[in-house]
Structures are given as structure tokens and as C-alpha cells.
Design a protein that fits this description.
Elements lengths: L1 E3 L7 H12 L7 E3 L6 E5 L2 E7 L2 E2 L11 H17 L4 E11 L5 H18 L2 E9 L5 E9 L16 E5 L4 H17 L12 H8 L5 H10 L5 E4 L4 H12 L1 E6 L7 H9 L4 H7 L6 E5 L4 H6 L3 E9 L4 E4 L5 E3 L16 E3 L1
Parallel strand pairs: 6-7, 11-14
Antiparallel strand pairs: 1-16, 2-3, 3-4, 4-8, 5-8, 6-8, 9-12, 9-13, 10-12, 11-13, 14-15
Helix pairs in contact: 2-3, 4-5
Bound molecules: adenosine-5'-diphosphate and magnesium ion.
């Protein structure tokens, strides 16, 4: 008998998550928010706890030929912290589960945890547990992070309303260019043992990929300014995908402007060298871990003057859709072209039973 197997690429990562979410509607009163945001919200003794987990798999999320283990440990912790920043919260504890193959010795684990300790130190987080097991194929890291909402509550993806400002922190596309540089040097290096790649022209971009930071500095600044975002998400998949998540969650449309996208000089230089379009890289490059949020127009002046953030557009009615206004004034629909791991998954249509 033939049994049909539906390839997961048919649903995509988010279709799959929606399907799972539909089967697990929260039942308990203390589950304030379940699947669907950067972190879940759980009520405990009058506080909102924030919990989130983000897994990193060797060969999918990182390549150890050019990723120092210390950096990997640091990044594994920080990308988890970033989901708590995306709720406007405080980050408190970390648990780390990992699977290791016999390729890894004590020195490797030490380096990994040195990086994690550095991140915990810097962000004031306690590592309180985890799990260790073996793996046949490589390294898997699965941190879980816990924190607490700021007074006033967590900032969800769903709070944006039409005619609000769309704001992004830092600059875009750096991590993607960093990845292109390292992938190129890896090829060069493989064909020429002993050659030392010169990464100095791209130090910023490579740093964006290997050593991201969670933008709690911006969360603090917003608090000082008395600015409360109406909705927020961190940029893990790319501006286009993550803005679409935010807009869908809030049921608003959006208009962002090509001329306003913050792009570093080095990213422009990288785009030229790799023959890439800088706007495409800014829209679709993932792993920048900047924050994307919406705010009331009343905050325009303060935000406009800050070097921490860039105003890239505004929300609209849901029916108007989600668009990029190009420098040519052309109106281009936004697409979720962010990285989708399930598109690469091996698809099997039928199998014998
Ligand atoms: P982020 O990029 O902010 O980490 P994700 O896109 O990974 O968010 O996840 C979106 C939402 O889906 C989150 O609420 C997350 O907890 C949930 N989620 C992801 N994978 C699963 C899964 N396998 N089972 C249940 N929930 C999941
Ligand atoms: Mg996130």
C-alpha cells in the first residue's frame, strides 16, 4: 500500500507552525500568550514571564569551518536574548540543551561555554540548566531563555494600528554580506590550504554575522524617552518577512520606502563586489537581530533625531496590502523571501509501507 507523505515545503515553516498552534490553544488561565510571537507570556504572581527558545544546528545555522566556537556560544545565547528584547522585556535566565558528536572534545566545549558565559555576563543572565546528549552528525544547540515583561506589559507583534510609524534599529543586510564573505573565503581556503583569508575590508559585516547583539540598549532608550512601541519583532528572517509577520499579526498594511532603508557603507561595497542589489539584501538578508517596531506618530520628532533608529515607513489599512515604494516611485508588493529552512528539506512524496 502506498502512503502519501506531504512535503513540509508545501506548508513552509510558518504554515507548519500555524498548524501546530491550531492544535494547542492555551487552556490555562496563566498562559497569557502561546505560539505566535517572539516569546510566550506566562502569568506568575502578578508578573508576566517571557519564555522563548531558538535552536542552532550545525550545517544549517552555522558552519564550523569559519565560525569560532566562542562566537557560536555567544551568538546562540544572544539570538535567544533578542526574542526577549523583541517583547520589550528584561532577560533573566538561560537553559542550554546541546547534542555533540565525538568530533568535539573538552577544548571545544570549553570554548563554546566561554562564549556563552561572556554573553550571560554582558546581559546579566544566569545560566540555570540544560541537557547534554550525543549526536551522530554534528553540533546542535538549543537554548531556552526566560525573562519578564517591563511594567506596562509585553510588546506583542499584534498591537500595530493603521497610520503609525514603522521604525527599525541599526542597519540592515550586514549579516548577509558577512555570510557571503565567509562563504567565499571558505571556497578560496579549501582550494589553498594554509592561505589566510583577509577579512579586514569586511570586518563590520563579518562581525554582524558572527557576533550579533540584542538591542536592549534601544529598549532602555525608548523607556527613557517615554516611547512605548505598539508592536515589535526582532529581525531574524529579514526585514521583509518579519515586517509581514508583524503586519499580519496586527492586521495592518504597510508602506516602506527604499530610499530610507538604513544600509552601511560596507554593505553597499559588498553588494557591488558580489553583484547583489543592496535593497534586496536589506529586505531579505536575515540574522541582523535588529528590532522592528511601530509607534504613534506623536513620537516622530524624537525618533527622527535619534541615531539609534530609522523611520522607514508607515502602517496602512490591512486592505491596502504591504508595499515597498521604490526610488523610482514604483509600488512593489513585499514578499516573504526570508530564509526558509523547510524549502531545502528533502521532499519525499510517496513511500512504500
Ligand atoms: P522567532 O523567529 O521570533 O524565534 P519563530 O518564527 O521561530 O519566532 O516562531 C514563531 C512562533 O512559533 C513562536 O511563538 C514559537 O514559539 C512558535 N513555534 C516555532 N516552532 C514551534 C514548534 N515546533 N512547536 C510549537 N511552537 C513553535
Ligand atoms: Mg524573534
Amino acid at each position: 500500500m502506498k502512503k502519501t507523505t506531504t512535503p513540509l515545503s508545501e506548508l513552509g515553516e510558518f504554515g507548519l507552525i500555524e498548524r501546530i498552534a491550531a492544535q494547542f490553544q492555551p487552556q490555562r488561565s496563566e498562559t497569557v500568550l502561546g505560539i505566535g510571537d517572539d516569546a510566550a507570556i506566562v502569568e506568575a504572581a502578578g508578573n508576566e514571564l517571557l519564555i522563548s527558545t531558538d535552536m542552532l544546528v550545525e550545517g544549517i545555522h552555522f558552519d564550523l569551518t569559519y565560525t569560532p566556537l566562542q562566537h557560536l556560544g555567544y551568538k546562540a545565547a544572544v539570538v535567544n536574548f533578542s526574542d526577549i528584547a523583541a517583547m520589550g522585556g528584561e532577560v533573566h535566565q538561560l537553559l542550554v540543551s546541546m547534542a555533540l558528536s565525538n568530533r568535539f572534545g573538552l577544548e571545544a566545549v570549553d570554548a563554546l561555554y566561554e562564549g556563552m558565559a561572556k554573553a550571560c555576563d554582558r546581559y546579566g543572565v544566569d545560566l540555570i540548566g540544560g541537557d547534554t546528549t550525543s549526536s551522530k552528525t554534528g553540533l546542535v544547540l538549543c537554548p531556552t531563555v526566560m525573562g519578564r515583561s517591563a511594567s506596562g506589559g509585553a510588546i506583542r507583534r499584534s498591537g500595530a494600528r493603521p497610520r503609525q510609524l514603522i521604525v527599525v534599529t541599526g542597519d540592515l543586510g550586514g549579516a548577509y554580506i558577512g555570510l557571503q564573505v565567509l562563504e567565499r573565503e571558505k571556497i578560496a581556503y579549501t582550494g589553498n590550504e594554509g592561505a589566510q583569508p583577509d577579512l579586514s575590508p569586511y570586518a563590520y559585516a563579518v562581525g554582524r554575522l558572527l557576533k550579533p547583539e540584542a538591542r536592549f540598549d534601544v529598549i532602555e532608550w525608548l523607556r527613557e524617552q517615554g516611547i512605548v512601541p505598539t508592536a515589535m519583532i526582532d529581525l531574524s528572517d529579514g526585514l521583509s518577512s518579519d515586517l509581514i509577520h508583524l503586519c499580519r499579526s496586527s492586521r495592518v498594511g504597510c508602506r516602506i520606502y527604499e530610499e530610507r532603508l538604513p544600509i552601511a557603507e560596507e554593505v553597499y561595497a559588498g553588494c557591488e563586489e558580489f553583484r547583489l542589489n543592496a535593497t534586496t539584501v536589506a529586505l531579505n538578508g536575515g540574522e541582523d537581530y535588529e528590532l522592528l517596531f511601530t509607534v504613534d506618530v506623536a513620537h516622530y520628532d524624537v525618533l527622527k533625531q535619534s541615531a539609534l533608529v530609522t523611520l522607514i515607513g508607515e502602517t496602512t489599512e490591512w486592505e491596502e496590502g504591504m508595499h515597498l515604494i521604490a526610488n523610482t516611485q514604483e509600488v512593489i508588493p513585499l514578499k516573504a523571501q526570508g530564509w526558509n529552512p523547510l524549502l531545502d528539506a528533502e521532499s519525499v512524496n510517496t513511500e512504500d509501507e
